Structure formats: C-alpha cells, structure tokens
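Record type: monomer structure entry
Structure origin: computed from sequence
Chain ID: A
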Amino acid sequence: MGGILQAGCVLLAMTLIYVRPAAAAPASKTTTFGDLPYYNWSGAYVGGTFGWSGGDARSTLSDPNPTDTANSYGSLYGGLHAGYNVLIPSRILLGVEADISFPNFLEGDAIATGQRTGRGSVVTDRLDFVSTARGRLGYAFDHWMAYTAAGFAWSQARLTESPGARGDDDILRRQRLGWSLGAGAETAFARDWTARLEYLYDDFGHVTGVFATGTRFDTRINEHTLRLGLNRRFGIGDTQADSGTSGPAAESQNWNIHGQLTFVQQGYPTFRSPYEGPNSLQGEHQAANTISATAFMGWRPWAGTEIYFNPELMQGFGLSDVHGVAAYPNGEAQKSNFPAPRVNAARLFVRQTIGLGGEQENVEDGPNQLPGKQDISRITLIAGKLAVTDFFDGNSYAHDPRTTFLNWNMYCCGSYDWTMDKISYTWGTLAELNQKFWAIRLGYFLVPVVSNDNRYDAHLLDRGEYIAELELRYSLFSRPGRLRLMPWINVANAGSYSEAVGLPINSPDYPDIASTRRVRSNYGFVVNMEQALSNDVGLFSRVSWNAGKTEMIGWTDCDESLSVGVVLKGTSWGRADDRIGVGAVFEGLSLEARAYFSAGGLGIMIGDGRLNYRPEKAFETYYAYSLSKRVTVTGDYQFIVDPGYNADRGPVSIFSARLHAEF
C-alpha cells in the first residue's frame, strides 16, 4: 500500500507543479469583484489542505483477557485533493471531490490509541492516511460560496506490537471504511485561485489485528477536522469568457504561490564491512528513496512586510536509516524515516524590510520571495520557523540538494553544528544590514533539548545558537565573487566526549554520553567562498572547524572540514540550462571525538562499535539535465572513502538519480 500512496502523492503533486498561476491583469485593466454579476465556479480544480484533526478512539486488547480503553488524539494534518464543480443558473453548485490527508511528521502524532500487554510490549494503532470521496452541494454568493459535503471515508491503520514475537516490531496494516460529513465556505481571491475553510466529521468502522504473539487488538475511531484549503482551477479563462465576465484579479506583487517536487533514488553495491555497529552504513548492497513536495506561499499585507508559509509532504528512507557516513550522500534524506507520507509546517515566518534610501534593485518572483523593488541599503528583520541555512551559509554553486550537490557536507557546512529538529528546521530570529558590497547578519535560534531531538529547548537566550555572518562581495578579474565569514556558538544540554570515555568501563552502555549531559558550549566558524571563473564556470569552497569537545547537537559528526568544487553550465554544447558539478570534501574528528568513537560511542550519524581512525573523504559528480524550465533529471555518483572515519570499512560507490520539478 505504501508504494500506491507514494505514486498517488507523486501524481497529485506533479499536477500541482505543472500548472502555473495566471498572471494578474495590468492594474489599469483589473476587474474587481464588484464589477461581476457573479463568479462562475464550474470546472475542475486541484489543491491542498492544512489543518487540525482530532478524534476519539476506542480499543480492546485481548492478551488473552480483554481490556478496554478510550482516549482522544489529535495532530496537524495536510494533504491534497481534486474535484469538479458545476454551477447551474440558479447559482446552485453541484460537485464531487476526493482527498487524501496525512498526519504530522512526529511519530507520536500518528498514534490514535495504544495499550501495554501483559508481556511488556506496547500495541499501537497509527493512522497512515485519511481519505474521502464526497459529493458537494452549495450556493454561490458572487465571489464566495457555502457548501455541504457527504460521502465515503477510509483510512489505513498501522497496528504495531513493539517488541514483537521475534524482538522486532510486528506490523499489521488494515483498511478502515466509514462515512464523512462536512461543510465549508470558499472564496475566489484571484481568477484561477480560491481559498476555503472546511469542517469534516469522519466515522470509521472498527479494525482487528492478531499479532504473531497471539495478542488481539480491536480499534474504532471517529475524527473531527478543521482545515484551510487552497485550490488552483482549470479552464477558468474560457468559462468566464463564455459567461461574459472576467475572473477576479489579484495584485500579483502582493502574493505568490510556488511549489516543488523532488524524488531521489539511491543505492550502492556490497562493500568491505568486516564489522558493524548500530550506526554503521550497512555493508550489504541496498537501495532507498525519498520524495518531498513543498508549497511556497507568500503574502505582503502592506509595504515592507511579508509572511511566508511552506507546508511540506515527505516520504521515504535514507540508506541505513541515515547512518554510517558523516558526509551523508542524500540531502533529501531526513534523520527520520517515513514509511507513509507525513506533513510538516516547514516554514512559517515574517520578514520586515526597512529601506534606508538610495539606489534600488529588482527582486525577482520566486519561492519565499515576492517580486518588486527594494533599497540596496536596507535592514531586514525575520522571525519564525525556518531553516538557519535559508539565510546563512549561502552559496550560488552548492547550497540546495534538490538542484545541486546531494552530499550533506558538499551543499552545506561541514563541521558547523547547524541547529535543527530531525528534519532541518527550528524557530528563531535574525537581522541583516545590507549594503552594495557587503552584508552582516546576526541570528538567534532554538536548539533541541538534547542532541538530535524534535523538541526545542525553551530556555530562551540562556540556551540556543548565536550566529553571525559577514558577506563580502567583490570582483576578481572582472568576475563576481563572494566571501562569507561565519562564527557561531551553541549553548545546549550536551554531553562531553572526554567525560563519557572517563566513565567506569563496566558502567551501563559505556561510553554513555547521555549520562554526561549538562549545559555546555560548542563553537566554531565557517569560511565560505564562491568565485565565477567565466560566464559558465564557477568555483566554490568551504572551510569549517569546531572545538570538538562535546557531542553535536543538530547536524552531523564532524569537527573539521574542507570542501571544494566546480560547476559548469552546458552553454558550450548547446545545453545552457544543464549543469555539471564536480566536488570533494575532506573531514575529520577532534582527538576527544576519536577516543569516544573508538570506545564504541554513538553519534548522530556514526558509530561502528570501534574505530580505526582515518579522515573521511567524499567525492561527488553530477549531471543535471534540464527537460524544461520546470523539470530537471540528475544522475549523481559519489565515492566515499573511509566512511564514518573508519579505515576498516569501504570504500563505497553510491549511485543516485534525482527528479526535480517546480513552478
């Protein structure tokens, strides 16, 4: 069922990606809602939803005696939908719609109910997805309409007993069938775009699972959902022309919507692996894939202020559950695995720009970037949920694993301990002073409560990441270049490598770094350079270092790193939108970290149980072939020597294929 879900997610996301918002009418020709007799809602549409779902669950655990329980649950949900409307002359709307929604990425948010068995295992009922197929009946009031909806509902239950009969989790998947009833209101804010607020009640039938241990689990749930939706309509131009009206227009510079879809398939053949630990790259050949789909929505409520929201769907696995290599080979692989699609409110932030006068520059329309003009001399303030590297450690040639290098420490920052949850995001604020030839940025961001955790430490200012960056813009032999200098310090609840190694060797889980955790500081710097060598060739390099005394709090196990690479455009062979990239990264561990991993310690990414230390090396080359302005396919090869800094293991050749589409 997971493959069917993934294919459906790809098809629906690709439908969204291959449609482009119609350009707004020139200001002098704008048709307002007041000029329209009514808005014609007829036609097909696709869209997305994001909101809150919660409900009541009842379960009976028979082990062998039955135990009943009831509880409530709730989570953020997001998903995709498609439908078709017919608006008859009386303004009655008739329609059909199908949708599929997925819970938040936190594993606990997918749990509807659970109980503990007499043998000490835990049995849970997780919702992989919720879907409906409904008829809609509504009435149109000019540019908005109200409707009711009713139909069928179904969901996939993932019943799990942990541990199972053989120690691993036992998993049973069951389909729930039921019915759905709801109501909502929808408004057209542009010719091709509508927004809605909707309530749904879903009642699902019960499911039963019998595990290998003999445990029987019966569950039943019902669910309430309140969600916002956004729709892109098709064929609206022809429809409105037939009715003698123009669709409502919006000022294009005050809002935009963009999207992306990225699919990565990776694999490698069997390589030398005489022993393995919990965090090793598996020596046997394997393959894995990841997929992500993101909407980038921006709105300018008034001059100088912009609000951005990026809901995102993701599914898939990294090689060896994202372990075994510090310079991990897939930047799209999160430090969480998602056997079914999961949703995340990836970014939600406000940007305030204060112009200081003087020369201006154009801002192009793009993801999280509203078009217009702004003063080159300006102050920018940003606050909200984001990825730190959205605004720090930028590089024109190596900064986005969806379009450039896939390797973590090639597109990013090596030994910089990038603060984040397990999927790269945090909350914080930053300020930037920009001038024509330089910029300076200062930021404060939350750190996780402990290393590699999805919870944020709420001890504001006392703990967190403090970061600064000076960006210098220059010309070398009439070619543009940039140099970025980025010092940082993390104050977090972190363990000490030396103290962990110094524990009694017979202590539990030796060397248990978690037992040494207290508030500590880690600090370092990144020097980041990019230089155009010609119109078609660019060079980049990063040098980074950190003190290496404490465990990493968010990124990867690396204390010193050097990366260098070159990117070539395909102009000379008639493929100006194609790219070839070649790069290498060399990285190492501090003396304290080497001792810790040699003693069998585990980090965020690595831990073979022992360590024959040697610096890790990763070499990457890719060819990005542009099928169109919106779609690129990439072939990528990486050769990793001494994975996990271990000379006893590897080398390993990793082959990747990437599909990236955007609008």
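Annotation 1: The radius of gyration is 27 Å.
Annotation 2: Residues 192 and 233 are 5 Å apart (CA to CA).
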